[in-house]
């Protein structure tokens, strides 16, 4: 989302405009969700982190120092909560396998069913394969791309806050990861 | 991000490469939206969270979290989570166990305290005159404490345990 727009929406939400809050949720939920997913939390933990982030955002709404950077605030809050979960897990035994959750599920989501018409089947298959290949890219690339491809596209400041990496390193890393992904898709197509 | 040089002239072949990068990035964005969307129930909770926006309440910030600030004790895997929240002169210490919450308001004073479990969930807890309180229900998910003491309303930062 555009930063000026975000700042204005935060201000309106502070002033009691529920529609502005809704626009913030719609516009930034995918970013928060992508941070949760990038950290491979279990389903239950991921849901709780997402909720915690939004509850805390609502709580701090009128006190956020730079409202136009609310996206970065959300992203870094999500990251911190994810790291806490991982830290708590490291102290306990690892019981469930969070990787399972990153796989595309076998059940079709309603969004998927919409594009499941015959002519769109090839397209859907390509997206599914891309999503699978993302998993094989290595952790740094997988994390970066998962956050980078949330909708609407996040700013590099937001990506930096989400993953704790320098803004300046995002561009080069993005390029390397996308090329690696393309190479994997090409290899798969040739096989 | 464009891949263009400082002189504004793209190096040979770089335009095609960058265009292909952008294309695959957009495909991934579609894939994310289709294959891993924000669950509807979660988005709904975020919408409802607007009710938690309360300009009249002071926020007690988390100043200590044993998960982050304490050294792990070797061999002790299920040490209770110790939390400290502070809003100016008022401090709230909370211990989270499997059985619920045990806490203390400092300086000792009577207060009315509720455990919030989300936009819709509020549960009062019993507090003695010295500000000690106990909740027999462990938080299921994110929680915050709302304190009313001497005319002030204080809410602790939302946290998951």
Structural class of chain A: mainly alpha
Q: Gyration radius of chain B, to the nearest Å?
A: 24 Å
Oligomer: heterodimer
Number-wise, the strands of chain B total 9
Number of domain units of chain A: 1
> Which whole number gives the mean pLDDT of chain A?
88
Q: Considering DSSP H and I runs of 4 or more, what fraction of the residues of chain B is helical?
A: 10-25%
Largest β sheet strand count, sense and barrel closure of chain B: 9 strands, mixed, barrel
CATH architecture of the largest domain in chain B: Sandwich
Largest sheet of chain A: none
Mean pLDDT of chain B equals 89
How does the overall form of chain B come out from the CA principal axes?
elongated
Query: Pair with the most extensive interface?
Result: A-B, 64 and 48 residues
Secondary-structure-based class of chain B equals alpha+beta
Determine the number of helices of chain A (DSSP H or I, runs of at least 4 residues).
Answer: 10
- Low-confidence segments of chain A, given as residue ranges, are 94-105
Largest sheet, spatial ordering of strands of chain B: 1-2-3-4-7-6-5-8-9
Protein name (chain A): RNA polymerase subunit sigma-24
Keywords (chain A): DNA-binding, Sigma factor, Transcription, Transcription regulation
Family (chain A): Belongs to the sigma-70 factor family. ECF subfamily.
GO molecular function (chain A): DNA binding; sigma factor activity
Structural topology:
The complex is a heterodimer of chains A (about 190) and B (about 160).
Chain A: H1 3-14, H2 18-38, H3 43-60, H4 70-91, H5 99-102, H6 110-114, H7 118-135, H8 139-148, H9 156-163, H10 167-190
Chain B: H1 14-35, H2 40-48, E1 58-65, H3 66-69, E2 81-87, E3 90-97, E4 100-106, E5 112-116, E6 122-127, E7 132-135, E8 144-149, E9 152-156
Parallel strand pairs in B: 1-9
Antiparallel strand pairs in B: 1-2, 2-3, 3-4, 4-7, 5-6, 5-8, 6-7, 8-9
Family (chain A): Belongs to the sigma-70 factor family. ECF subfamily.
Protein name (chain A): RNA polymerase subunit sigma-24
GO molecular function, one term (chain A): DNA binding
């Amino acid at each position: 989302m555009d930063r000026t727009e975000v700042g204005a929406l935060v201000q309106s939400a502070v002033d009691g405009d529920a529609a502005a809050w809704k626009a913030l949720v719609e516009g930034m939920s995918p970013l928060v969700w992508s941070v949760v997913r990038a950290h491979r939390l279990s389903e239950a933990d991921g849901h709780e982190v997402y909720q915690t982030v939004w509850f805390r955002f609502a709580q701090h709404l009128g006190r956020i120092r730079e409202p136009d950077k609310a996206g970065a605030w959300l992203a870094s809050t999500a990251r911190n909560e994810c790291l806490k979960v991982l830290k708590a897990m490291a102290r306990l035994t690892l019981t469930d396998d969070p990787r399972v959750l990153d796989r595309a599920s076998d059940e079709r989501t309603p969004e998927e069913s919409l594009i499941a018409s015959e002519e769109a089947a090839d397209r859907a298959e390509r997206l599914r394969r891309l999503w699978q290949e993302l998993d094989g890219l290595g952790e740094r690339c997988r994390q970066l791309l998962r956050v980078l491809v949330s909708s609407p596209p996040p700013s590099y400041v937001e990506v930096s806050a989400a993953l704790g990496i320098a803004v300046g390193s995002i561009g080069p890393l993005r390029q390397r990861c996308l090329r690696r992904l393309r190479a994997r898709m090409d290899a798969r197509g040739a096989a | 991000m464009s891949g263009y040089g400082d002189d504004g002239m793209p190096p040979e072949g770089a335009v095609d490469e960058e265009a292909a990068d952008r294309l695959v990035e957009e495909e991934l964005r579609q894939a994310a939206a289709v294959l891993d969307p924000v669950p509807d129930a979660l988005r709904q909770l975020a919408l409802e969270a607007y009710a938690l926006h309360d300009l009249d309440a002071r926020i007690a910030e988390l100043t200590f979290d044993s998960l982050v600030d304490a050294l792990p004790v070797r061999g002790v895997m299920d040490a209770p989570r110790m939390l400290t929240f502070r809003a100016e002169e008022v401090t709230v210490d909370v211990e989270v166990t499997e059985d619920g919450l045990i806490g203390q308001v400092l300086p000792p004073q009577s207060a009315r305290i509720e455990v919030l479990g989300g936009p819709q969930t509020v549960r009062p807890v019993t507090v003695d005159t010295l500000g000690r309180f106990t909740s027999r229900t462990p938080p299921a998910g994110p929680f915050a404490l709302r304190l009313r003491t001497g005319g002030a309303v204080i809410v602790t930062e939302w946290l998951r345990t």
